[in-house]
Specification:
Length: about 200
């Protein structure tokens, strides 16, 4: 089993979403032979999608400059990791009601027409199929199921867009609300992990 772990916190250490992602990966790896690839988007930030990147992506491969080829190759590497994975585990903290810029850059990198999705007469079709996804969602406040939770629809929509439809979410909320709330959040997240990996 090939497991790809994506840590998208801005912090390389002390991140609750990374802690939960680590636990999910450890539990999965303990089931049998597994190869784990970890990508820490804080330690190894992926460049944002800017004008130069767009120009590189939309220039035919045989006409790209060396700099453009190098830029596209960065995205190619992330796509190859996602394609090779049997399981993808994502640590996804909420920042200002949304996903982090680190995760957005990863999303932008792996979304490529004709490679991870395609357009058809009836709409887009995702091509990263046959994979299991676990997403550890952490928040400072309590947002799940409320109008302020605009992060979850974004995650669900993007993952489905590229063909990742078999997704389990683990929530840990209230980390900015004091020690008791943190302890409660961690206990509830542990229960969700236990249920998801039973």
């Amino acid at each position: 089993m090939n497991i790809l772990q994506i840590n998208s916190s801005a912090r390389s250490t002390g991140s609750e979403s990374t802690r939960l992602a680590d636990e999910i990966v450890a539990r999965l790896a303990a089931r049998g032979t597994a190869t784990v690839t970890r990508r820490d988007l804080a330690a190894e930030p992926h460049p944002v999608l800017d004008e130069a990147a767009l120009q590189a992506l939309f220039t035919p491969a045989d006409q790209r400059t060396p700099a453009q080829s190098a830029r596209v190759a960065l995205d190619d590497a992330l796509i190859a990791q996602a394609q090779a994975a049997d399981v993808i585990v994502i640590g996804a903290p909420m920042y200002n009601f949304g996903i982090t810029v680190q995760l957005k850059s990863w999303f932008d990198a792996i979304a490529r027409a004709g490679v991870t999705f395609k357009y058809t007469a009836t709409g887009p079709v995702g091509l990263l199929t046959g994979k299991k996804v676990y997403v550890a969602v952490t928040r400072g406040g309590l947002h799940r199921g409320g109008p302020s939770d605009v992060q979850l629809p974004h995650l669900k929509t993007f993952l489905s867009f590229v063909g990742l439809d078999d997704v389990e979410f683990v929530f840990s909320e209230g980390h900015g609300m004091g020690p008791e709330a943190v302890a409660r959040a961690r206990a509830e997240a542990q229960q969700q992990i236990d249920a998801a990996l039973a």
